[in-house]
Specification:
Blueprint (H helix, E strand, L loop, with lengths): L7 H13 L1 H9 L10 E6 L4 E6 L2 E2 L1 H13 L3 E6 L8 E4 H17 L7 E5 L4 H13 L2 E4 L6 H11 L3 E5 L2 E3 L2 E3 L1 H9 L7 E5 L13 E3 H6 L10 E2 L3 E7 L7 E6 H16 L6 E4 L6 H13 L3 E5 L10 H8 L4 E4 L1 H8 L4 H4 L8 E5 L5 H11 L6 E4 L33 E4 L5 E2 L4 E7 L9 E2 L3 H9 L6 E9 L5 E6 L3 E4 L2 E4 H9 L4 E11 L3 E10 L6 H15 L8 E5 L12 H9 L15 H8 L3
Helix pairs in contact: 1-2, 3-4, 3-10, 4-5, 6-7, 9-10, 12-14
The structure holds adenosine-5'-monophosphate-propyl ester.
The site of adenosine-5'-monophosphate-propyl ester has 21 residues, from α10, β20, β25 and β26.
């Protein structure tokens, strides 16, 4: 097993070693896994043509490392604790032995239904253990999983299925989210109207609501599981075979399928999990993310299971039945490590302290955050009220594309600084770039965040479009991976992420492209043009502000706004609903027709006195009109 970093000195030594002899550094870590064949070369890389390979020549199956290798010594240990949406329903626990059996069975179901190595399989499921089982079952047979967050609409689902040409869909009849029940199968049925590549659907029964089962296509999970055995040979994969695709939004165009491959992702997932959280044997670890996002992939499923940890999965929401739900679960399972998003912390902070104080949180040792910058006030509340000033907070900066945590404190080992992600993990070489594309040396500086050497879990390509991947991430600064984030390095060399520098909005820790929302709004027949920007929002971090030119002018603006929200829910899903919609007669444009988003952002922020020079606009008067109608 991977040895953890034990002290600040150790961290500094390891960091230095990782920069000076990266190949030796990573091969020692990789040696702790179970391989069918070890590698010929540790790393080959070329950022210009984007060709990165880790552990070339190696052969393995990641599920043998997540499951099989723990069975001899830890077969009875709890792998997954599942906590249902409704506290009145029972918790379910799977030991490593039981999880292995379920994964093997479901892998057999997939094979029986024609799935094989290299196929792409879409998973559109609630937060039930069967989602983790399905993820691992795909990996078991060498199929590439593409998990689509169950809050996405039929249109968003079909776009993702079609882009990856998935042959199979695994879904559920419905899902429970707080007081709501969502008809997932119904949404999937809509999506499948336009997904010719799907030949079978496997449906897990969660809610028991009535659904349509199309004969010849739809199969019940429980019936299929009865027809297969529990032995399933793992498909032996090449180190660089794709493990999964995960769609994420960028500043332009449709969401892209970020591709992660097998050996490097595996190595970094366990390495970062153990070191950041300083996971100790016997700890109960809980990450509140959804497996539909990268955080769930790396730090609910793969990282913890590779480390032989006990990982808790929660189906519900933080505020139902009341705002004490998270803390009740922490107390019930004596959670030791708790990892959540700043948006959840801010939402819970708004409720009375008694929701926290009413539960025994004495088992907590480490707290974590992810997904967006955490403001100091929320950090202090988390630290004092939840952590009783005893638990280090790891503010973990990373991205779908990075596969694992890149900049973060190591709990109890490296220093903390509120609202700072602090220091890079060993193996990660961050740098800041200036407007001319030069690296900014020294401390107490600010620039665009890049990474200058490959790391094992980095993005390899975007599905079906390698050029796009090169252009988005590797062309802004030659020889560097560009993150899209702005960043400060303070006098002590600590990093603080300041937010996106591109047209991506981070709403409650979810990435949403402005172009994606604009395209969706354009679907309304009265919309002539839409411009979308982010603005600071107390709970969500950023809110979505949409400026709309429409024709004919709406008679009832509120009714028109409602229609637009419906369009968004239909095209993308509720997470992309604009918080504010302003109907305007024109947009601020340069003489070449480019929308001046800088001005729209300032107006959305309420900083109308900081608009700067507007004289170069095609029609400066439009700014006055927008300002006067600002919401
Ligand atoms: O802007 C950064 C922000 O979230 C973006 C990545 O989003 P996504 O790929 O959806 O992954 C989220 C979970 C890893 C980044 O470009 N971000 C993520 N973590 C932090 C953060 N911003 C500030 N502090 C963080 N700890």
């Amino acid at each position: 097993m991977i040895k953890k970093i034990e002290s600040l000195e150790d961290y500094k030594d390891q960091y230095q070693k990782s920069v000076e002899s990266p190949e030796q550094f990573w091969s020692e870590i990789a040696n702790t896994f179970s391989w069918r064949k070890t590698w010929d070369r540790v790393v080959d890389w070329d950022f210009k043509d984007l060709d990165v390979k880790w552990f070339s020549g190696a052969r393995l199956n990641i599920t043998e490392n997540c499951l099989d290798r723990h069975l001899d010594t830890n077969g009875d240990k709890i792998a997954i604790i599942w906590e249902p949406n409704d506290p009145k329903e029972s918790t379910i626990k799977y030991s490593y032995e039981e999880l292995h059996q379920e994964v093997c069975r479901f892998a057999n179901v997939l094979r029986k239904n024609g799935a094989k190595k290299g196929d792409t399989i879409c998973l559109y499921m609630p937060m039930v253990p069967e989602l983790a089982i399905a993820v691992l079952a795909c990996a078991r047979i060498g199929a590439i999983h593409s998990v689509v967050f169950a809050g996405f609409s039929a249109k968003a689902l079909s776009d993702r299925i079609n882009d990856a040409k998935c042959s199979l869909l695994v879904t559920a009849d419905g899902s429970f989210r707080g007081a709501k029940t969502i008809g997932l199968k119904e949404i999937a049925d809509d999506a499948l109207e336009s997904c010719p590549s799907i030949h079978s659907t496997i449906v897990y029964q969660r809610t028991g609501q009535p659904i349509n089962m199309r004969s010849g296509r739809d199969l019940w999970w429980h019936e299929e599981m009865e027809k297969v055995g529990e032995n399933c040979d793992a498909e032996i994969m090449d180190s660089e075979d794709p493990l999964f695709i995960l769609y994420t939004s960028g500043s332009t165009g449709k969401p892209k399928g970020v591709v992660h491959t097998t050996a490097g992702y595996m190595t970094y997932a366990e390495y970062s999990f153990k070191n950041v959280f300083q996971y100790e044997d016997g700890d109960v670890y809980w990450c509140t993310a959804d497996i539909g996002w990268i955080t769930g992939h790396s730090y609910i499923v793969y990282g913890p299971l590779l480390a032989g940890a006990t990982t808790l999965m929660f189906e519900g929401v933080p505020t139902w039945p009341d705002a004490g739900r998270f803390w009740e679960i922490c107390a019930k399972h004596s959670v030791n490590v708790f990892y959540t998003a700043p948006t959840a912390i801010r939402a819970l902070q708004a409720f009375d302290d008694s929701f926290v104080l009413g539960h025994d949180l004495s088992a907590l040792k480490v707290l974590g955050t992810v997904g967006e910058p955490i403001n100091e006030e929320a950090w202090q509340w988390y630290h004092e009220l939840v952590g009783k000033e005893n638990c280090p907070i790891v503010d973990t900066w990373w991205q779908t594309e990075t596969g694992g945590i890149m900049i973060s404190p190591l709990a109890g080992i490296t220093p903390l600084k509120p609202s700072y992600a602090t220091l890079p993990l060993p193996g990660i070489q961050p740098c800041l770039m200036d407007a001319d594309g030069n690296e900014i040396e020294g401390n107490d500086v600010q620039g665009n965040l890049c990474i200058k050497y490959p790391w094992p879990s980095m993005i390899r390509t975007t599905w079906g479009d390698h050029e796009r991947c090169k252009n988005v991430y590797f062309s802004n600064y030659e020889g560097y991976y560009f993150t899209g984030d702005g960043c400060r390095r303070d006098a002590d060399g600590m990093y603080r992420i300041t937010g996106r520098v591109d047209d991506v909005i981070n709403v409650s820790g979810h990435r949403i492209g402005t172009a994606e929302v604009e395209d969706a709004l354009d679907e309304h027949s009265n919309v002539v043009e839409a411009a979308v920007v982010g603005y600071p929002h107390d709970i969500k971090g950023q809110g979505i502000y949409a400026y709309i030119i429409c024709s004919p002018e709406p008679e009832d603006v509120d009714a028109f706004r409602k229609e637009l929200l419906e369009v968004i829910v239909e095209q993308i899903g509720p997470i992309a609903k604009p918080d504010k919609i302003q109907v305007v007669s024109g947009l601020p444009k340069t003489r070449s027709g480019k929308i001046m988003r800088r001005i729209l952002r300032k107006i959305a922020e309420g900083a109308t006195d900081q608009l700067g020079d507007t004289s170069t606009l095609l029609d400066p008067t439009v700014v006055e009109e927008i300002k006067s109608g600002a919401l």
